[in-house]
Amino acid sequence: MTNIHLEITGVNMDFPTPKGSFRALENVNLKVQKGEFVSIIGHSGCGKSTVLNIVAGLYQATAGGVILNGKEVRDPGPERAMVFQNHSLLPWLSAYENVELAVKTIFKGKKSKAEMKEWIEHNMQLVHMEHALDKRPDEISGGMKQRVGIARALAMEPEVLLLDEPFGALDALTRAHLQDSVMEIQADLGNTMMMVTHDVDEAVLLSDRIVMMTNGPAATVGDILDVEIPKPRERLAVSESKEYNRCRHEVLRFLYDRHGKKTKEATHSDLDLVADKKIETENWVVSINKSKDKVA
Ligand SMILES: Nc1ncnc2c1ncn2[C@@H]1O[C@H](COP(=O)(O)OP(=O)(O)OP(=O)(O)O)[C@@H](O)[C@H]1O
Ligand SMILES: [Mg+2]
Hints:
disordered C terminus; alpha/beta; four-stranded antiparallel beta sheet; binds magnesium ion; binds adenosine-5'-triphosphate
């Protein structure tokens, strides 16, 4: 693989817990090329957010590490913007000011005040939030907060955009619109993207590769799928292609098989995740049935 932008090597992550050390990740390895879109998919609690947090520099791996542009990642940096699973806006600032804070940090001395204003408004328009610029986080819905978080990350024009289930709380139409925006933005900027998702269709539509993680404890990369659908992708045409259905099937099979194993091996520490998994598994079973229908 040429032109490697980001390299995760031999990453272990142990969390201290009252019952002793808990190994969330073991020997996670991944090389990501510049401009590549990589999705991470796996069951709830397997360690997807932990991987992203390590790449963001928010967590330090217990063993191994991350190299970005040839340098070891030790801290967060402006070249890596993250959209968190649970939106993380400053509650005392308006939606506009939350984005402005990030934009000022990145573009100070490079953009004039007027240019910054225009840039913030442009990014807010991308996520359809231009009508709520002056609202504070406690005055808008969860999905709207998530959209502001996405606008803030996009406005930073990061080299690497880290997205942790960015569209999870959004209605289907807004979700589709934002997925399209993210594809367009990536085509324009050529930035590297790593996205955690539970949504198989979203992973196939957006990704160059899908990283499928095994269940925890000691989760790792179970398999990596290349999505060989040419870009730019148009969702309707893509959804009818053979390659789309092949990829969808591969991911579903991986998740479904792993879940089967997991149910037999479930441990006490997994019990709090069982409810989540049950719902997801039901969705996946439904999806498998749907895709069987399509193939037939
Ligand atoms: N700070 C922490 N302290 C202790 N355990 C943690 C901590 N953060 C995560 N874990 C554990 O590590 C494992 C992986 O967590 P993580 O949040 O990365 O999972 P995930 O794949 O993102 O799950 P979800 O899909 O539900 O968001 C889980 O078992 C979780 O309970
Ligand atoms: Mg998570």
